[in-house]
Amino acid sequence: MNRTSLTELRVEHLGLARNASSGRSAHTIAGGHDRSLRQTLIAIVAGRRLDEHESNGEATVHVLEGRVQLVTAESACDGSAGDLIEVPDTRHALEAVEDSVVLLTVAVH
Predict the structure, then answer these.
(1) Of 67, 98, 99, 73, which is closest to residue 85 (Cα–Cα)?
(2) Could you tell me which of 73, 102, 98, 67 has the C-alpha nearest to residue 88?
(3) Do residues 3 and 74 make contact, with C-beta atoms less than 8 angstroms apart?
(4) Which entry of 46, 47, 89, 94 is 20 to 30 Å from 65 by CA?
(5) What pTM was estimated for this model as a whole?
């Protein structure tokens, strides 16, 4: 059994993202490519984004800090700290409106 402090990781990776040329930092907390469930903490500085990509399975984005926008060709969904956003099964991007940290959970079939 493992315990992970999301608070500590949030602070650490937001600092790393602020110093990274990409404006992002990520850390896989649970699972991985060989598991059906994967959870990844992602920090993104304001004005940066995860470029448009396909869904790898059912997924949610839990906003831990900041404000983000999940964008598809047809719509956009705003999220702020405490919000849980279902990721649509279509191409999408995640944009940071403010310096933000999210927990991405993906269940691959």
Answers:
(1) 67
(2) 73
(3) no
(4) 89
(5) 0.90
Which own/partner contact pairs does 4-8 have at CB distance under 8 Å and 24+ positions apart?
4/29, 4/30, 6/41, 6/64, 6/103
Which residues on neighbouring strands pair with residue 40, listed in sequence order? 28, 104
Are 26 and 17 in contact, with CB atoms under 8 Å apart? no
Please answer whether residues 85 and 109 qualify as being in contact, where contact means their C-beta atoms are separated by less than 8 angstroms: no
**Which residues partner with 63 through β-bridges?**
102
For the chain, where are the alpha helices, taking DSSP H only?
6-19
Q: What is the C-alpha to C-alpha distance for residues 102 and 73, in angstroms, rounded to an integer?
A: 22
